[in-house]
């Protein structure tokens, strides 16, 4: 906020914002503010610091040492927090268990990302047997993405196939299911369910769009629940949601305009958002999605 722009906000008032607010004639504006809520303050402040730290890390640009310096800065912040716990500063309780946990967050100097851990003895190892390459979507599973069907980005269908093969449980909530669309992912769903993965599908008979063959093929899959709403008068289900649960906690959700049809998943013009539900959010998106699917299955 480098200048005063009138409208709605939901921002912490920092030095920059406060400076701009002081430039405004207070007699000519209505300024609506409120104190930080104690219950929400941890999330709000954490989100605020996340944005600030991203900008600060970008200030460090010294060639080969850039990653090491950013890691050291991160560890320095954690070390400062650990010292505050030891001293009881900022109302921290001098708790050894909390201190040990914070110290365990320190990043290793080699600064690597753990991308997967594959159990080769599992009945359904999440890797391609020929290459031992881990199956994972091309888009990041730790950040939100927007799919539009553009030629320069991964297709919806290619990402769904990889999501299926790398999940532990799957929930589909769609208005209708066409065989033309289901056939594109039926092999992956078969491999997923035969390996012990659990699939739950919720759909409707709305406008008679769902194909009998699609439902029939789904019913042949093991570890699969199918729920069909025949109430087209009171309940009209328009949701298009694909949830891929992973026991690692890195679950993903696709929300958008794509039903299970060939045109929606391949050639159609659509907009779908990949949403990454964070486990540390309160209330957790994961819990909300679970409740929605539980209610829809009743």
What does this structure look like?
The chain folds into two domains: 35-103; 127-296, Endonuclease Chain A (Endonuclease, Chain A). Residues 276-283 have low confidence and may be disordered. The chain contains ten helices and nine strands. It has a seven-stranded mixed β-sheet with strand order 3-9-8-7-4-5-6, with helices on both faces. A two-stranded antiparallel sheet has the order 1-2. By secondary structure, it is α+β, with helices and mostly antiparallel strands. It is globular and about 65 Å long.
Defining key terms:
seven-stranded mixed sheet, two-stranded antiparallel ribbon, 36% helix, 10 helices, Endonuclease, Chain A, 2 domains
Give the beta-strand count: 9
Q: Please estimate the helix content.
A: 25-40%
CATH overall fold name of the largest domain: Endonuclease, Chain A
**Which strand-content bin applies to the residues?**
5-15%
Question: How does the SSE layout of this entry go?
Answer:
Layout: H1 15-22, H2 41-59, H3 66-87, H4 96-103, E1 127-128, E2 133-134, E3 145-147, H5 156-165, E4 169-173, H6 179-182, H7 186-194, E5 198-204, H8 212-219, E6 224-229, E7 241-245, E8 252-256, H9 262-267, E9 272-275, H10 285-296
Parallel strand pairs: 4-5, 5-6
Antiparallel strand pairs: 1-2, 3-9, 4-7, 7-8, 8-9
Helix pairs in contact: 3-4, 5-7
